[in-house]
Amino acid sequence: MTVFFGSPYFGPKAADYARRLREEHWDTPPDELRQNRAGLFSGVTCTFLPIVLYQTVLGVAGSEEFMAIDPRKSLPKDLAKYLLNNQHWEFLGLCEKR
């Protein structure tokens, strides 16, 4: 439910989550991906999974630059908007700067 009413802003809680991903889940997926608790992420796994993977590899500092979005509160539209507006993702051909 949080994902629909929360903000994908990469604030202190999201940064802490990125830190924990890198430190505690480098070789094991977080609980959110291991257990399907009543379909918690069934509709947003396509958004949650890529963000979590990037943040696990990048850590907090890299996430702030390349993936500054809260995976637990992001919908597909939030991720698409983030990628379109982040200059580091321009090489993908997703956006055309004018």
UniProtKB/TrEMBL annotation:
Protein name: Uncharacterized protein
Superkingdom to which the source organism belongs: Bacteria
